[in-house]
Amino acid sequence: MRRINFTNTQVASSETARDINRGVVLNLIRRRQPISRADLARISGLQRSTVSLITEQLIREKWVVNGPLGRLPRGRRPTFLRLNDRRAVVVSDIRPNQTTVAVADVNGRFLSQEVVPTSNHPAKTTAKLSASIKHQMESHPELVFEGVGITFPGRADEETSRIVFAPNLKWPEFDLKTAIEQETGMPVEIDNAANACVLAEVWFGHTDHVRDMVVVTVAEGIGTGIFVNHHLAKGLNGLAGEFGHVPLDPNGPQCACGSRGCWEVFGSNRAGVRYYLESNTETDELDFQDLMMLAEAGDPMALKALDKMAHAIGRGMRMVVAGLAPEEIVVVGEFTRLWPRLGPVIEAEVAAAVLVGKPPRVRPAADPRMARLRGTVALALQKHFGAFSPADFEEEINRSRVRAKARASA
After folding, report:
1. What is the pTM of this model?
2. Is the pLDDT of residue 90 over 90?
3. Which domains does the chain have, with CATH numbers?
4. What SS3 state is found at 352?
5. How far is the C-alpha of 176 from the C-alpha of 192, rounded, in Å?
C-alpha cells in the first residue's frame, strides 16, 4: 500500500487535489457506510459543495448508490450513501496443491468460490485458473467486474510483475499477470500472499492505531508481510520479508529454495507433518489437515508435533522482533485453530527475544481462513480507492479540517 506524499507541492495540481478528495470521500463511505453527505462534509472537513460534486460523480460512475433515508427531529431527511455492491472482483489464492478462486463484492463479501488443482507447470495452472475465473464471472451476470487479484507464495518483480521467486510452487520465472489478462480480458493485480494478508488487516481489520506490524503466514512455507510506519514495505526487488528463507541451522533439512535449515523447514505445515511421521512409524500417508484433526481429537503424538512446530515458529519470530521491533505480529495459518494451546508457546519464544520493554502483541488474524482472499480483494481494489493507509486517511482528513477552520475564521 504505497503511501501518498501530501506535502509534495510540485504535484499539488487541482487534478491531484480532486483525486485526493475523491479518495477521502470514497474511503469514508467504505469505512462508515451508510453515511449522509452532511456527515461526510463534517467528518472530512471538505465543503458541502465539494462533497456533493464528488458523491454525484461517484454515483454516476456507479461506485456509490443512494441508500435509505435518515430520520431527523425536523428538516429534510438525509439520504444515506453506501458502496454499490454490484461492483465486484475475482480473487485467487494460489498454493502448491490447490488454487482457490472466488468472487467478492466491493465490501469484501464473498459470493461464491471454487477450488482447482495447482500444477508444477505454470502454463497448466494458468489454463485452469483462467477457466475458473471466467466461470466465476459467467456465474454472476448481475455484477460489474473491476478486475482480478492473485496472490501466491513467492515474489513478483516490482516493475514487470513477472513471478521471479516461487520455490514452493516449483515454478520458474513466469509472467502470470499477462497470461491471465490475455485469457480473461481483465486487469490483473498480483502480489505475495503475506503482503495480501497485511492488506486484509489494514482494509478489514482494526489497525488504525498500529504503526508497525508484521503478518506471518504459516502454510506449506512461511511468509512475512511487513507494515512499517503505516505502509507496506516492499524492499529491493520486492523481496522484503523473506524471513522464511533465513537459515536457522546450516545442517538442517533441505529447503525448497536450495538452502538448508531455513526457518520454514522447521515451522511450516510440512514441518509439522514431518515431526509426526518421525514419531509414528505406522503411517507414511498424512497431510496437515489430517494432523490437525488428530490433534483436535486429542492424539498425543499429533499435539507433540504441533508443539514442536509452534516452538520453531516462535524461534523464527525472534528474528522479526530483533530486526523490526513491531507493535504487533499477526499470525495466519490453519494451526491457529489450536491457538489456546499453541499461542502461549509462540508468545513465550517471542518474549525471550525482547531486549527492552514489553514484547509485541502476538495474535491470530481475525479470520485466518479467509485472510489471504480478503487481502486479495483489497489488492484488486486499492487503486480505485486511492491506496490510502489508515494513517494517510486520517492525516488527510485532519488536513481538510484545518483548512475548513481556516476558511471559517477568514
Report:
1. 0.88
2. yes
3. 10-84 (1.10.10.10), 87-198+372-385 (3.30.420.40), 206-365 (3.30.420.40)
4. coil
5. 13
